[in-house]
Design goal:
The protein is an alpha/beta fold. It has a single domain, classed as Alanine racemase (TIM Barrel, Alpha-Beta Barrel), CATH 3.20.20.10. About 40% of the residues lie in helices and about 20% in strands. Helix 6 links the parallel strand 5 and strand 6. It starts with a helix and ends in a 5-residue tail after the last helix.
Length: about 230
């Protein structure tokens, strides 16, 4: 069985090769190690081999882990956020990847403002059209970003999407291309207080295609930690 250190080296090599194919600098791509259900011991091992950003799907699970991890690390929320968890999320996460409504954005902004903080967020876009996935539709993302840009207490830093799970990563390429095009349209619109510096797309099964289509944040769990037992 491969160790976490071996897995990380393999992932980084694949990031470099995908970047080279796209004519990109691999330093433009940030690895978010998704630590959902992973033990503190597994997480500490990954951190000892250079991981600096951890992605969690649930606020409560991240909150329980934060005090157990003895290393400098930034936490990202990569899963769906309920409004009643916004207060805790603002205090825990350096970046929230999953804002998909004005109501959620307002709650995040309110909670951040109350503690004199500005929350960094990405707007989640459902580029696959699957009803099981969260996110605004591509034809509505421009309007949503414009509305969120007027909310105090948060900064829109880019977009996020989840590709459909498929055995052939090429099947997901149109979804990633769609997000990149949406990013370009929004950036051209020049909304005040909005930066389109990040595209969060690509997971274990499809991150190389995502990089080729412009991803700056790849969210990888299984390829680093191995299959989950639950």
């Amino acid at each position: 069985m491969s160790s976490i250190s071996d897995n990380l080296q393999w992932v980084r090599e694949r990031i470099e090769r995908a970047s080279a194919r796209a004519g990109r600098d691999p330093e433009e791509i940030t690895l978010v190690a998704v630590s959902k259900t992973r033990t503190p011991q597994e997480i500490q091992e990954a951190l000892s081999f250079g991981v600096r950003i951890l992605g969690e799907n649930r606020v409560q699970e991240a909150n329980e882990k934060v005090t157990l991890i003895q290393a400098p690390v930034s936490w990202h929320l990569v899963g769906h956020l309920q409004r009643n968890k916004a207060k805790t999320a603002v205090s825990l996460f350096g970046l929230i990847h999953s804002v998909d409504s004005v109501r959620l954005a307002k709650e995040i902004g309110t909670q951040a403002s109350q503690v004199g903080h500005r929350a960094n967020v990405l707007v989640q876009v459902n580029t696959s059209g699957e009803v099981s996935k969260f996110g605004v539709t591509p034809d509505r993302v421009m309007d949503l970003v414009e509305q969120i840009s007027e909310i105090q207490g948060l900064d829109v830093c880019g977009l996020m999407t989840m590709g459909a799970f498929t055995s052939d990563p090429e099947d997901v390429r149109p979804s990633f291309a769609s997000l990149r095009k949406a990013r370009d349209r929004i950036a051209q619109a020049g909304f005040r207080g909005v930066s389109m510096g990040h595209l969060s797309m690509g997971m274990t099964n499809d991150f190389e295609v995502a990089i080729e289509e412009g991803s700056t944040l790849v969210r990888i769990g299984t390829a680093i930690f191995g299959p989950r037992s639950n």
